[in-house]
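To whoever is on call:

I kicked off a structure prediction for a single chain this morning and the downstream step that reads the tokens threw a length-mismatch warning. I double-checked the sequence; it's 345 residues and nothing unusual in it as far as I can see. Pasting both halves so you can look.
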Amino acid sequence: MVHIEQLAARTPAVSVDELLNGFYPSPRFGEVSFSSYRPDPAQPSQAHAVHALQHFAAGVGARDGDGLFKRLFGKKDTSRAGIYLDGGFGVGKTHLLASLWHAAPGPKAFGTFVEYTNLVGALSFRKTVEALSHYKLVCIDEFELDDPGDTVLMSRLMRELADAGVKLAATSNTLPGSLGDGRFAAVDFQREIQVLADQFDVVRIDGEDFRHRGLPAAPAPLRNDDLTHHMQAEFDGKTVARDEFSTLINHLAGVHPSRYRQLLDGIEGVVWKNVHTITEQAVALRFVVLADRLYDKDVPILASGVPFDKLFTEEMMTGGYMKKYFRAVSRLTALAREGQNHEPS
């Protein structure tokens, strides 16, 4: 038997304390380590990134024992406050960032760029600084530079945390259509966040998307008539959220993205009927956040309608937010593969 619910019927309420307590790696990365990362031998930058992060982890909290005399008269600490992983999606940046978080002493925080901007919105900027200034390490996954307002906000937050002695670590995705010298990399990072750039050592990670490395193409969407049979085969004994796709995306407009993690509490699989191409940018950006939270929780997907590579318009896939949409398609495709592991009986 499958226990069926609807995401469109859920309206989670999340307190400020719950937001603060939720800044740790998702279950997908709950037990990863540097040793469990598998560098591609053809991409030496991946092994280099592991060594760089291990060295960085050893310095987190290292100044805790410094006395007043050493702080006043000792040799100035010239190490940078942060390390920045720059590479394409699917090369294991989140795995490495979570490994750093696990290896470092606490208190510490781990969250996506969007989750930190949501935290500022819930607490206020000053209270967020006060809360995080006591941490030894703050990890920011999927740093975004396509929203000027959020970029300025996070730049200021990270600068103030660095001034307070907090070590910082961040990742960002490249633009899939710009993988050469003109891609989003250290030069762009320094241009967009000039005040913050000198706080970071930039580590480049090359490679292809591991989610598609050696794997078959994404499964074709199911027919509506087949959804129930596949759901019973794949999700027997589990709690599944089954929604009409249009109803779900309309519902997301009324749920703040900071609550999408709680929206999925207890859900072990999702089934979407009549998936269609999203044509509005605001709707698409909200759905990207849901895709990230589904991937965090490793929730398999069964779907009918258009394939996920047609989920966003061609204009979106070549526009200013393209890296978000390519990441979402990559992650949803991986979850769709997981959702069709079994054939219906």
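Update from on-call: the warning came from a stale cache, not from the record. Cleared it. Sanity check on the structure: Residues 3-13+212-339 form a domain with the Rossmann fold fold (CATH 3.40.50).
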